[in-house]
Fold each of these.
Amino acid sequence: MKTRLCFRAYPAFLATLLASGLTGCELDSGSSGGGPGSCTDGFTFEDPSEEQYSSLTIDRDQATNPAQADLEKTLFRQFTQITKPAGTTANKESATQAYDFFSRKTEGFIGFNQSELPEYNSVRNGFDLLEAMIASGDVAPLQTARDAMVNCVREDAPGSIRVNTLKVTETEPSQKDRDTWELGVNYAHNPEPLTDPTPFGPNVARVAFTPESFVFTLYPNEAFEGVGPSSGFKQPSKLIAGFNADFEETINEQESDEEESEAGNAASVIFESFLDNTQDDRRKDRSKTDRWSWSSEQATDVFTGVANARCVRITAYYGRDNADDQVKVELDSKTCPGISSASDLENPDHTFSYSSAKTSIPQVRD
C-alpha cells in the first residue's frame, strides 16, 4: 500500500518522521532484521489484514461498538468540552464564533455531529477506531507490533515495525453503502531522546495513517514496561494529528472546501495535544495543553471585525479553574506555521481569550 501522506502541508514534520525511521510515504513491503516476535528493525507485514465490524461508528454503547471502542477515549473528547465558551465570558460573541468555526471545520474530518457538541453521541473516523483496535489486543498484526515494542524497551534497543495495510469493513449496511477503510500503523522504539520536533526522553513513537491524514504519538518507555505492557489503552505524552482536506474523503462536496481543493489551496487542520511534562520546539512548556489550528490560503471572514484570516488557532489550557484566559484564540492573515516550526504565531492580527463553560475538564484519555 502506498499512502497519500506525502502532502504539502507537513513536509518538515514528515521529514522528521523519516529521519526517525517512521515513514508513512511510499512504504515498501520488504522486511529486514529478525521477526515481529522480537525487537526487530524494519520489519513489515507484507500481507493485507482484514477486519469486519457491523458498524464503523463509535457511540455511547461500548458493548456493541467496534472493538469495544470507548467514546470517552476518542481524539477530540475533552477539547470539544473545554473550548465551549461560558455564558458569562467577556468575549462571548467572538468565543462563540471561534467554537462554531472549530465545530464546522472539524466535523468533516472526525465524524461527530456539530449540532450535538460538546456532548456529542458518536464519532466515525479511522483513527479513533484504530486506537480501539490496538487497545483490544484482538487484531493479530497490531498486537504483534506492540509486543515487538515491549521487547525493544526491555532490551533497550532501537527497533521498528509497521503494518502497511489493514482493511476494515462494516457489514451492517447494504453492499453498495458499506465502507471499507484502509489503515496503517508504524511503531519505532527510540532509546535515545528525540530532539526534533519535541525534546523527549526514551520513547515509543507511533504513526497511524489513513489515505488522507495521520496521527503521530509519543509514549514514554514506562508505558511499555511492567505487567501486561502490550495490552490495553496507553495514555500518550504527546499527540499530533494532521487532517488534509485536499482529498475527497474528508470534505462535503457542497462546502467551500471543495473549491479550495480544486484550486490547490485545500484547508488543513492540525490538532496537537501535549500531556505530562512535554515541551515544544522552542523548549516552551506545553504541559496540559491542547491546540487546534486551521490553515488555508482561502481566508475566512466569519469573525466579526477580522477579515482575511488564513490561520485560526484555538489553544486550551487545562487546570485553570474559572480563568478568563483558559481558552486563547489567535487569528492571522498569514498561513499557520508548519507543524515543526514556530510554536506561536509571531504577530497575529487579532487575539482574544475566553473562559470555558466546563473549567474542570481533565486532559486525559485513559
Amino acid sequence: MGTFLTESVPVSLSGALGDVGKFKLYACDQPNVILYVTKQPVLSLDRQGKPGVAVTTYTAQQPDHSVKIIGGAATIGLNTSPQLDQASIDQAKALVASLGVGDPNRLRFLPLTTQKGKALLNLPPTAGKPDQKHNERDVGTPGGSLSFLAELSESGALEWSNAIRNQSRVNGDITIEYEYLRRVPDIGAEVRVHGQRVFEHLSAELATSYNGFFYGGSAKIQAAWDALSRNGGVEVVFLNQGLPPDLEKLRQEMVTTFAKQAMQILFDQIFAPMPQVAPAEAGHSGGLFGGANFALKWQKKTDAIEMIQKIEFRGTTWLKDTMDISLAALFSDLDASCLTEVPAQQAFDSVVLVDADPMLANAAASMSWDRGHSPEAPVFTKDGGNQRYTVISTDPRSVNVTCDIKINYSPPRWPVIPYKQVKTVGDGGNQMVIKTSAWVGRQTIFMFLREGNRIIPPQDLTPDDYLILNVSYAGPHLPTAVRDSAHIDAMTPIDFAYPLDPQGRLGVAKFSAFGVIGGQLKRAPEQVIPPTDSAVFILATRGGDIQLVTSEAVLGESDNLAQELIQGQGHPLISRAGSPSSETTKKGKGTGGNGKDGIITGHTAGIEYGVQGTYLWIRADDGSSRRLHLHSVQDALPFERESKLVKVELDPSGEYAESIFVDLVGA
C-alpha cells in the first residue's frame, strides 16, 4: 500500500556546493546525499526520442493561386528535471572529494525539493500569443514535464517554420521560477539597493538595444548583480546582532542568499522581458539561467530609485530561484519533422494536453467532435503529454468538442477523478488543457521543537523527537475521506497532497499529531487546514504539549514564534503583522490498566494509518503507551476526533484489538 505523504529534503545551512556540467549541486543534512537541479530546462523527448515541439502552419490559397502561410499554432514540451549524466556524476564526485563534504564512493543524488512553479512563455506581440490557460502563475510542482501552447500570427508562423527548416534565429524565451526548501538560521537582514550605483554598474555591463534600452541575457544580469553585492551597490545589513558566533563563517553565504532573494523579489520592478531584439544584439545562451533577454526599466541615471527590502528567515524556509532559456537555444537542433502544414479553410488542429504531476499515474481521455473527425481515446502516462488531431470542417468555429477524462492518481487510496468539458472551437475547444497539478491540493507540514519563542537547532535534537502525523481530506467529489499517517520530525517537513474537485467545490483538509515528547505521550486534537495556507506547523515542547498552528488557530499574544511562522508560511518574513489576542490549549489525563489478562484500559491517544494497516494508540494509567493493530479502518472511525476512555480485549497474539468497549461515564 502506497502513501501520499512524501519527505521534503531541505538544503543544509552550507547551501550550494557548486556547478557540474548543466547542473547545480547543493549540500543537505543527510550524510553522503547531494541535491541537484538543472540550470536550464531541455526539450522533452517521446518514446522514439523525438523532441517535444510541434509547429503547425495554416495555409490559404491566394487570388493568384499561390499558397501563403496565414497563421499557426505550436506546442512546446519541456523537461525541468533531467537526470544527472555519468560525466556530471564523475565531476560531482571529484567536487565532493575536493570539498571534503562526503565519501565520493557512497554518494546518493536526489532532485532538489521544489514547489510553486511560475512558467511563462514570452513572445513578441508580432509573433503571436501564448495560451493564457497554460501561461498561468502557478503550474504546480516543477520537477518533470511542462507544456506550452501558442497561437502564432502570420509572421510568427513564418518565422518559426523558417527557424526550424533553416536553423535561423527565432525570438522569444521561456522563464520558470520555482521555490526550493533550505535550512537557514533564525536571522534577518535589510537589503538596500542603491539605485544610482546599480544603474551605473548595469549600464556599463549590459548592451544597448536598437530602441535605447540596456539589456542582457539573464546569466549576465545575475553575474552583474553578484558583483553589485560585493562592491556595495546592493548592501546587506544584518538585523540585531547578525549571525551567532558559531555560524559566523556562514556570513558570506548568507550575504549571497539575502542578495539573491532580494533580486527575485525586486526583479519585476527593475527589469522587463525583452524577447525581441535586433539580430546582431541577441543575448548568449547558457549560463546560470539560459539566454533569455531582459531590459533595464531605467533608461537614465535619474530614473533609478533607492529600494529597501527587509527579509527574515525562520528555521526551514522556501527560497526562490529561476531557470530560463531562449527559444533560439531550444530550436537550434530541430528538423522539419516537427512541422505540419494544414490548409486553413478545410482543416484545423484539435489538441488535448495533459500536464504531468508527481501524483499522476495515468489519464484516460475520450475525445469526440460533432463532425469532421471520428472519436479518439488517448491514454496519457504519468509524464502527461499531448495528442493533436486534424479536424475537417467548412465552419471550424462552430464545431463542438467533448473531452471526457478519467484522472487516476498514483496513491492507491485516492479514487479515480472524472472531468468533462464541452466547448465549441470558437470558445477554445480546439485546445483542451487538463491541468492535473491544479487539481492536487498541497500543503507543507513542518514540525519544530521549541523552547519559549526559540526553535531548538538540529544539533540539539534526538532520535526520539518525532511524532505520528495523521491527515485526511474530504470533499463532495470523494465517496469517502482519504487518510494517511507518517512519522514527522524537526529535520524533515512532510508534504501533504490530496485530490481536489475539478469543478471547484471546496473540501476540508485536516491534520492531527500525537507521540511521546519528553517521556510523556501527548496528543493534539484534529484541526482543519485552511485552504489558503501553504504551510502549517506542529510545535512541540519537551515536557509540555503539542500545538497545531494554522492561520485560523487562536494564539496567545506572547506567542511570537507561532505568529511569525504563520505569517511567513514557510517563506522568509517580509513584514510583520499584528498578533492574535488569545490562546487556547487542551490537555488530557490518563487512566487504566497495563494489559494483564489480555485486557488494556486507558484513554485513546490517536489513530495511525500505516502501510501495514491501521493502529490505535492507548495511553494507560501507569504512563505507558500501547500500539494496537485494528482489523479494519472502520474500527478506527469512532476514535478519530477525541480521546475516549476504553477497555480493549486483545486477541490471543496480544497484537490485535479483538473488541473495544467505550466507558461513557468515566470518559
Amino acid sequence: MSAYRAAYKALTSGQPLQPGEATQLLAHLRKELGTELADAVEKQLDGQYQRTDTDTDGSYRKKRRQYGAAMRIVNAFRELAAAPFRPNIPTQRDNRSTS
C-alpha cells in the first residue's frame, strides 16, 4: 500500500493513530514524495543535456558538467528525503575560482 493511501485511510477511518505509527507514516510519505520528485526532475533533465549536432566538444563538456551538478542535487534530495527524522543538510562547498 502506498504511503498516500495509508495516510488517507488513517485520516478517514476515524481511528486515531499511535504516535509511533503516525511518525512512521509521515516518514514514509516524505520518502515517497522525495523519490517521486527526484525521479520527475531526473526525467526532465535527461533530455535537456543531450548532445546535439550543433554542439562543439567544449559546449558538450559544459553540458555534461551542468548535468552532473544537477544530478548531484537530485541525489542529495533523494538522500534528504530518505534520511531519518532530522537530516543533516550538507554544507555548500565553495570551490569557484576567484580569478
Amino acid sequence: MAKADNKAMAGGATRLVSHLARALREKENLTQKALGEKLGYTGSAISAMETCAQPPSDEMLVKLEETLGAGLGVFEEAREWVRLEKFPPHFQDFALLEKSAVTLSMFETQVISGLFQTDAYARALITGGFPVLSDQRVEELVEARMARTELFDREPVALIELILDEAALRRGIGSPTIMAEQYQHLIELARRRNVTVQVLPLDCGFSGEHAGARGGMTLIETPKHDRLAYMETQGESLLISAPATVSAYSQRYAKIRTQAMGRRNSLAFIEKLAGERQ
C-alpha cells in the first residue's frame, strides 16, 4: 500500500502523531533508526508509524513524549485519541461514554464482557473471530480493549455491574488454561467494592420466566446523569437515548437481576468453575 493511501485511511489522531513525530525527529536531526534506538524500536517501526502503516502503540506514545515531547504533552494527550481510533467504528462513540460513566450495568449472553476480559481471553476471542484479521489488527484491538479496564481504578469511582448468562461463563475460549485465568480475573474483579458480578443460571427459565431471552444490553449513566442503552449484534451497534425506551430496557434489566443468583452465590459459582478448570 502506498504511503499516501496509509495516510488517507488512518484516523485524524494517528495522522497528527505521525506528522509531529516526523517534524520533531527532523528538528533534532535524528534518523528513523536513531530515534528507534532511543525509544527501543527498530527504524522500520518508526517508519511504519510516520507513514501511518501502523498506528503507534500506547507504549510508543509514552516514549515519544519522553524523547521528543519537549514538555508540551502533545503525545500524552494523543494517547486517548489514538487508542479510540483502534476500536471498531461502531464502538468508538460508546467507548467515550464508557470512559466517563458514573454507572455501568451490563448483561452478557455469549461471552464474558470485554471490560472484564483478560489479555489472553481477548486475544483468543478476537483471533478466532470472523472476518479473519491480521496479527497487527488483533494486537491493536487487544491493546484498545485492555485500556478500557482503567475504568475500574478511575477517580471518581464508577459503579460497575455485570450479569453474565451461565452459557457465557461455560463457553470455552482459547484453552482450559486461558479459561482458568479468566475465571480468576473475574473473581478478583467481583470482589471489588465498586463491582457486582451476578450469574443468570441456565435453568432460570424452568421457573416460567426468562427476562434475558432477548439478548444482551448495557445501561449507562453519564456524568450529567443522562441514561442511555447500548446494544451490539453482528458488528452493528445501537445507542438509545429516548427516555421511554431506555426506561423499558432498565425495567427488563431489573427483572433479569432478580432472576440471577445473588452476589455471593454468583461468586461461589465462578469459584467452583475455576476449580474445575485447574
